[in-house]
Amino acid sequence: MKILSFWKPILWLSIILVLSLIPGNKLPGIPLFPHIDKVVHALMYFGLAVLLVRPLKRLPGSRPYLWSVMICLVIGTAVEYSQAYLTVNRSGSFYDELANVLGAIMGVVFFNMLIRKLTREKIA
User: Fold this and answer.
1) Cα 89 versus chain centre, distance
2) pLDDT tens track for 74-117
């Protein structure tokens, strides 16, 4: 497996880690609407899941959609625990993790639907 094929998800993961682990007092304090952080979590992991699928598809015998969601689940859980125990003014949340996983699932479903649509258009 070539690690270079994973440069996009690694870059995106770096952004997620920076945003997730900066001290809570450095974050904007006025949300646009209640629970916007859950939408942000879902979007971040949506992006990570989409970026993971293509390099995972290149691995022989892999199940890229399943592995993409599982990787997001493990990373999201690790980030939530890190927020709870390693950061200042941050807390881990089950609901944040749920938003992470739902975002990842939506990401792989979106990717699958997009690939099917593009494949049908090429055949037609």
Assistant:
1) 23
2) 999 999 999 999 888 888 899 999 999 999 999 999 999 988 88
